[in-house]
């Protein structure tokens, strides 16, 4: 009699086929949903997870090399696109203004994106000049009125540390 009672309890504790299917489908469905949602959530919050601050600044030149005449300096950064890493060259026109402040201008023309250069046109010896459509900029980066560019050159974020100029994103405009 006691044995029969134990068997009854065991039979009641067993999972029915319907329950087993429910548990299995819920588990597999939840796993698949998590697998789909995780990349979406990661993508949505990615900017928050990005490193910021001084890690985005790159050593470009010793401050002692900077003169009052704009000079072009290049630096290379490692760019990671998914599993592909490449070297990308960045450039800036750098000089010291009359207040001894360091100015670092983007060489990208604000008209259609050609590269500007300093004093490259004999007619405009003290300006940045874009050869693509004759765009002109004053030394401080402002666009000369009535030339193709309709905005000033971008300025780089900058920081001087231990006698070296570091540049970051080009996010400031005049
Ligand atoms: S791209 Fe520079 S003037 Fe047109």
UniProtKB/TrEMBL annotation:
InterPro entries listed in its UniProt record: Rieske_2Fe-2S, Rieske_2Fe-2S_sf, Rieske_Fe-S_prot, TAT_signal
SUPFAM superfamilies: ISP domain
TM spans (from-to): 20-41
UniProt-recorded Gene Ontology molecular function terms: 2 iron, 2 sulfur cluster binding; metal ion binding; monooxygenase activity; oxidoreductase activity, acting on paired donors, with incorporation or reduction of molecular oxygen
Pfam families named among the record's database cross-references: Rieske
Keywords: 2Fe-2S, Disulfide bond, Electron transport, Iron, Iron-sulfur, Membrane, Metal-binding, Oxidoreductase, Transmembrane, Transmembrane helix, Transport
Domain Rieske intervals: 94-167
Family that this chain belongs to: Belongs to the Rieske iron-sulfur protein family.
Subunit structure: The main subunits of the menaquinol:cytochrome c complex are a Rieske-type iron-sulfur protein (QcrA), a cytochrome b (QcrB) and a cytochrome c (QcrC).
Function summary: Component of the menaquinol:cytochrome c reductase complex. The Rieske protein is a high potential 2Fe-2S protein.
Protein name: Menaquinol:cytochrome c reductase iron-sulfur subunit
